[in-house]
Write a structure and sequence with these properties.
26% of the residues lie in helices and 19% in strands. By secondary structure, the protein is α/β, with parallel strands linked by helices. The strands form 3 sheets. A 6-stranded mixed beta sheet has the order 5-6-7-3-8-9. A 4-stranded antiparallel beta sheet has the order 11-12-10-13, with helices on one face. It is elongated and about 75 Å long. Bound molecules: adenosine-5'-triphosphate. Keywords: ATP-binding, Nucleotide-binding, Transport.
């Protein structure tokens, strides 16, 4: 288990991590989310003893990383996939790390197989695509067969096949009882991978809860109800019946009604009693991305001056209602769904349940692919920080040259 207590990091005037307390438990994938600059990497670096806290503590299995016995066998991390000596082959890079940590050489071939790099094991890593570099970083993290794994943006640069592979890998590592702590900006991916979320904004803890709980607490479930378009009086009749029963009804742009506060079965019964025919009655819940946007909108440090989403925070004119989001048609003027009906306080999970996904196929592999475009230009995903750091190599003109003997 990873445990942070009052963890704080200041760089001069800048507080990067502010009194953060949380636990990352074994047997689950815990997602670590937050806007750019919110302190995720700083937190991960402090967990791994690469940065000293200004205040507070962070321990792994009860020890600060630097006092952890045989740390590389207990903790594996992918912090910067570029932190590799580019002149070395993938295999030699891993061999160096293995030797430094007393890990047998046969484990190198095992992890190369796990990440699907056995075919390019003898190629110099400076010729690797971003995705192949990520795989090499993941291989380094797995080298010591650790019980605790940290991954900073592990799917950065991976193609859809690679993303699926990482998702399955994370889940299977957690299913083996390991502690898996992973940061990502890809909310759709986190929704499929993580069981639990730790969300920070400007260095502070915003949420520490299950994925389903997080979505329920930061969005409102609702039902979409549609009566025949040709009979507007049916719509009026249903609106009255639903409102009288305590429902909250809002018209949507396409003529449907958005209903909150009533279960689907109750809406159906009320429509039946009012003798109103329905063309649609469907449950809806915000996505993790929408719930995340809603929670973190006030903690975003970097926003484009031309970004329409910035308008979200502007107050509406007196008496004006916010624009109504339309599922599947975008949300005009809104970056996140409207607040929960209880006035913004976290609400109990709604009646319609959250979407879930369970993908088996542990350690499924695929072969590395041709070079891919980076998804976040200028940002460097991470390498084997848990192992001793390896200096980054200068760019090479020709990766087909024989391997650098160093
Ligand atoms: N060595 C440093 N010196 C000064 N400021 C730093 C240093 N490292 C990080 N910071 C600042 O601390 C804050 C948190 O940075 P950090 O990299 O931890 O955020 P992050 O959540 O990982 O961001 P991103 O999602 O963009 O990777 C930022 O404002 C950053 O500029």
């Amino acid at each position: 288990m990873i445990e942070a207590v009052g963890l704080t990091k200041r760089y001069g005037d800048k507080t990067a991590v502010d009194d953060l307390s949380f636990q990352v438990r074994p047997g689950a994938v815990t997602g670590f989310l937050g806007p750019n600059g919110s302190g995720k990497s700083t937190t991960m670096r402090m967990i791994l003893g690469l940065d000293n806290p200004t205040a507070g503590t962070v321990t792994i299995g009860g020890y600060p990383y630097r006092r952890l016995p045989n740390a590389p066998r207990q903790v594996g991390a992918l912090l910067d996939a570029k932190a590799v000596h580019g002149g070395r082959s993938a295999r030699n890079h891993l061999l160096c790390l293995a030797q430094l940590s007393g890990i047998p050489a046969r484990r190198v071939d095992e992890v190369l197989g796990v990440v699907g790099l056995q075919g390019v094991a003898k190629k110099r890593s400076k010729g690797f695509s971003l995705g192949m570099g990520q795989r090499l970083g993941i291989a380094a993290a797995l080298l010591g067969d650790p019980r605790v794994l940290l991954f900073d943006e592990p799917v950065n640069g991976l193609d859809p096949e690679g993303i699926l592979w990482v998702r399955n890998l994370m889940k299977s590592l957690a299913a083996e009882g390991r502690t898996v702590f992973v940061s990502s900006h890809l909310m759709s991916e986190m929704a499929l991978t993580a069981d639990h979320l730790i969300v920070i904004g400007r260095g502070r803890l915003l949420a520490d809860m299950g994925v389903k709980e997080f979505i329920a607490a930061n969005s409102a479930d609702f039902a979409r109800v549609r009566t025949p378009d040709t009979e507007p009086q049916q719509r009026e009749k249903l609106t009255s019946a639903l409102t009288e029963a305590g429902g909250h009804v809002l018209p949507e742009q396409d003529g449907a009604l958005r209903v909150t506060g009533l279960a689907l079965s109750h809406i159906s019964d009320l429509a039946h009693e009012a003798d109103v025919r329905l063309w649609e009655l469907s449950p809806h819940q915000a996505s993790l991305e929408e719930a995340y946007m809603r929670m973190t909108q006030a903690a975003v440090d970097y926003r484009s001056t031309t970004d329409q989403k910035a308008g979200l925070m502007q107050p509406l004119p007196p008496g004006a209602l916010p624009p109504v989001p339309v599922p599947g048609q975008g949300q005009p003027g809104w970056y996140a769904p409207p607040p929960p009906q209880d006035g913004g306080r976290p609400s109990a999970p709604g009646p319609y349940g959250a979407p879930g996904a369970d993908v088996p196929n542990p350690y499924a592999q695929d072969t590395p692919r041709a070079p891919q475009a980076p998804t976040r230009p200028g940002t460097a995903p991470q390498g084997p920080a848990a192992a001793p750091s390896v200096p980054q190599a200068a760019p090479a003109a020709d990766s087909a040259k024989p391997e650098d003997p160093r």
